[in-house]
Amino acid sequence: MSNVSRLSLTSNSQPATSLRLLVLSNGHGEDIIAVRILQELQRQSNPPEIFALPLVGEGRAYQQLGIPLIGSVRTMPSGGFIYMDGRQLARDVRGGLLQLTLSQIKAIRRWVSSQKKLGNNRAILAVGDIVPLLFATLSGVNYAFVATAKSEYHVRDEVGLLLKKSEGVSWENFSGSVYHPWERWLMSRRRCQAVFLRDALTTEILKQWSIPAYDLGNPMMDGLELTFPSPQFYSQTSHQQEIIRPFVVTLLPGSRPPEAYNNWKTIMIAVSALLTSFQQRNSVFHTSGTVVFLGAIAPSLDCNILSQSVQSQGWRTASEFPIKISDANILTFKQKNAYLLLTQQAYNECLQLGDLAIAMAGTATEQFIGLGKPAIAIPGNGPQYTRGFAEAQSRLLGLSLILVEQPTEVPSIIESLFKDPDNLQIISKNSVQRMGKPGAALRIAKCLQERLG
After folding, report:
1. Same domain, 160 and 265
2. Is residue 11 part of a domain?
3. Cα 63–chain centre separation
């Protein structure tokens, strides 16, 4: 177990602030969402003094923002996906999950007690699912909850309940909501000051149970803007570098090794099939004949391993760049009239520039779709992107996410999509409706100041 810089809980040398806020989150994606909200909180007048306790992982996002952690952290074998598979839970228990949980509960109690002794106004912000929500409820102080894990879209749309697509659908909605009675009980306690839901549909449903539910948007869609001028696309045959727009496919293999490496092999099968299809029916997809595959590779992955898989499919390294990407270390490969780029520093660009995505990821898939574009998902072997996860994600995202059984089915799906522009417009509208518009972090931060301050 690695000990991070531990906060001195007995010092009262710092001037008192209006609020001391402890943030609990349970996953890398949840950490990122929390940090977006905290950044907006810090920009407000008289911001709270902020502390954090990541319940899963090492909380690097907090440390990068300079937020002190109040306890010990550890990365579990499952990476936080114990609800996907009982075997993952068993691995985590053997890896010290119970001991870690007990130490986290003690750390929260110690923090609450120390702030009380100092006479500070204190509150907790829980981000994620029932685990941080439960810890916040047990703390005995006021709390708010940013619910990232569930949406009513998992079981219904604006028309009504979805047809049963899997055995889990009936269970998910057995009590009239995707949030079960015990979760709603935690959200309706007197000390719960605000619950921020992913979308308007979920907010409307939960308001039936005396829950302080707010529909302020989804922070997952914040921070995806391009931070550089519009990219330039160049034709390899033009001496004057004539600007031309190729067809761009974003590749999302996920972020956790070794699963992401296996996902990448599957995605490369789809890329090869798609490249063959482009060459046979080029006019269906784009007049330029140039195709660019953008691999959004997490910093936690080894690009050398991915490069080996790329080259095994007949790609060769290239020096020319069909597209300007703000990554000096980008890896470029070429095969006939197609390029494949691997970047670990231009995530936003990969999402913004793609016309569609081939996806085997969680958050990244949802963010791509939230930009109004379709994605094709291929279920993998997990522990995250399993068939069950992909099926649940397709219910969440509706017609914007298309599941296929085999990677070789991807070309026919893409061809049908781009033969029907009207359907692409419907997908775009659906995507924004399901994922929300940017700006949620600021709206939530302002509401938190009002409700907790």
Report:
1. no
2. no
3. 19
